[in-house]
Amino acid sequence: MIAEHCHLATPKGAAKMESWQPRRGLIYTFGEGEPTPELLEKIPPSQRELVKSRHCKPLQIDEVGDLNRLTAWHFMVAGPEGALVTEYGTFHDMDGLRFSNPKAKL
Question: How confident is the model at residue 71, as a pLDDT?
Fold first, then answer.
């Protein structure tokens, strides 16, 4: 799992926009929106009480998913065999990065 996070605007630039494309395996992308109860078990137990994102969209090889809005909380979880993912994103400086888990760090 990539730790849940969001990107905020800073004096250096706008909030980062992201898209993801699995190249191998599959990923479960979580973001803000209507919860998908049938996929909530994909969230690791250690993170279930911390994350804000409850809407899940699985992505297969070469499908592309993106944030539904700037500054949205989001994270992804690899499928059972792992995943190789290409991320496309706009400029951001690390000052705008926020994690929902207070123990998460880069």
Answer: 96
Tokens of 67: 């944030």
Band (pLDDT 50/70/90 cuts) for residue 18 is very high
**Residue 80, CA distances (Å) to 29, 42, 90, 104 in order:** 14, 10, 29, 23
Instruction: Give the whole-angstrom CA distance, residue 91 versus residue 76.
Output: 20
Q: Tell me what the pLDDT averaged over the chain comes to.
A: 96
CA distance 38 to 44: 14
Q: What distance in Å separates the CA atoms of residue 53 and residue 80, rounded to the nearest whole number?
A: 20
Residue 80: name the closest of 41, 30, 37, 53 by CA.
41
Contact partners, residue 101, CB within 8 Å, separation at least 6: 3, 4, 47, 50, 51
pTM exceeds cut of 0.85: yes
